[in-house]
């Protein structure tokens, strides 16, 4: 095999010179061969050569960082509580409670460290005790009157949660739940109403309900009855008769708030001075600002429906439980 190998190089000894080549005699006398220009990659320094044991990369292709279980490598991974929320199993707050209680397994191992991160392909299991605790969480429907704020007390106005008392429970509530002060613990508002607005307000302990109603991907309809005036009307008459149709169409689609285009809405006249709005989003003071944009002034605003749950005969200031089997879908 050796002769064939040398021949392939162009000479018997691999030098590329035949026996009678004058250069061969010059080399045999000990003269140094002529210097060749350095290779381009050698001029780049030692960094151009791969280290021993490393894997060579194709030229011109940047290396992609491989995920590693190091502090820096896990920063891009989602937290376990966020992943549980993304799967629709619970709110992030509920998920943190489950994790702290040791009710969550990842790939068969209990994870009880808050802030732990997981890979999307890992398997998450929830202990049945967490499901039982979740089933005991309640959702409350309140007819909020004017003068109450949806969340924390502000500017001297009381929060709506103060109306959730045994005395204020609607006598027509047909749900099987007995009022317990524990039902007030952790109640969160799922879709606010401003202080001057009335109607259906949802307060819930169940993170799944909150996510369904106000999550970024929520498509649940909210229906409002809105009494309006047109201060700059060119002539006298009820708004229903004299308000321009093209402005009404703008309320349905075409307006932006804070530089963001609003989703299409259903807007129609209910009577001579009352509009019906059906929205699939809930920006701050959205309806009032939409009306202002087309020259209307809101006199009264009442939310009458969220999804398939209606305000119905629930009187102002009274509340009831969301019944088992009753959903917003």
Characteristic terms for this protein:
Structural Genomics Hypothetical 15.5 Kd Protein In mrcA-pckA Intergenic Region, Chain A; 3 domains; 10 helices; Alpha-Beta Plaits; 22% helix; single chain; 329 residues; nine-stranded mixed sheet; Pseudouridine synthase; alpha+beta
Topology:
Elements: H1 2-9, H2 22-28, H3 71-74, H4 80-86, H5 92-101, E1 104-106, E2 109-110, E3 124-126, H6 128-135, E4 139-144, E5 188-189, E6 198-204, H7 207-214, E7 222-229, H8 239-242, H9 245-252, E8 256-257, E9 260-261, E10 266-271, E11 274-279, H10 286-293, E12 297-306, E13 309-310, E14 319-321
Parallel strand pairs: 6-12
Antiparallel strand pairs: 1-2, 1-3, 4-6, 4-14, 5-6, 7-11, 7-12, 8-9, 10-11, 12-13
Helix pairs in contact: 4-5
Q: What is the assigned CATH homologous superfamily of the largest domain?
A: Pseudouridine synthase I, catalytic domain, N-terminal subdomain
Helix/sheet category: alpha+beta
Mean pLDDT over the residues: 82
How many individual domains?
Answer: 3
Q: What sort of overall outline do the alpha carbons produce when their principal axes are compared?
A: globular
Strand content: 15-25%
Commentary on this structure:
This protein has ten helices and 14 strands. Helices cover 22% and strands 19% of the residues. The N terminus is likely disordered. Helix 4 packs across helix 5. 22% of the residues are buried. Strand 12 and strand 13 form a beta hairpin. The chain is an alpha+beta fold. The protein folds into three domains: 64 residues, Structural Genomics Hypothetical 15.5 Kd Protein In mrcA-pckA Intergenic Region, Chain A, CATH 3.10.290.10; 93 residues, 2-Layer Sandwich (Alpha-Beta Plaits); 86 residues, Pseudouridine synthase (2-Layer Sandwich).
